[in-house]
Amino acid sequence: MHLELLNNLRRQSEVFESMIQAFKGLERAVIAKDTQLVTKYGANIEELSFEISRLEDEKEIILKNLGFDTVKDYIDRCGEPTTYEVALQLAEIVEKINELSIVMQNIRNMFEFQTQYVNLLNTLLKGIDSPTYAPPMNNPSARYHVPSEKPLYDRNF
Asked: What keywords are annotated for this sequence in UniProt (predicted)?
C-alpha cells in the first residue's frame, strides 16, 4: 500500500507536468491565434483535469486503507522507509502546482490585456466606451462633465 501511494503521487506529478506543458502550448496557440490548436490544448487540459481528479480520489482511498486522512498525517505519523520519498514527491507536486498557477495567470493576463487593448482602440477610433470624465466644455465653473452618450464621429454638427 505504501508503494501504491508513492506511485500515485508520482503519477500526479507527471500529469501536472503534462498540464503545465498543455497550458504553455495553449498560450502559444492564443498568441498565434490558431483556433484549432486552442481547441486541441483545451481538450487536452480537460482530460488531464479529469485524470488529476481520478488520481486524487484514488489517493484518498489509499490513505484511508492505510489509516490516514491526509498525506501530511501519513508523513508525520508513518514510520515506513518510503515516508521520505512521499514527502519529496509531495513537495514536487506543490512546486508543479505553483508553476501551473503562474502559467495560468500569464494566460489570464494576456486575455485581460487583449480586452483592454480592444476597448482602448474602440474608444480612440469609434468613440465607443467613453471615459468617465472629461475636461469642462463651455462651462468653466464645472470641474468635470460626463461626455455625450453618442460617439464622437456619429454626431450631427
From this structure: Coiled coil
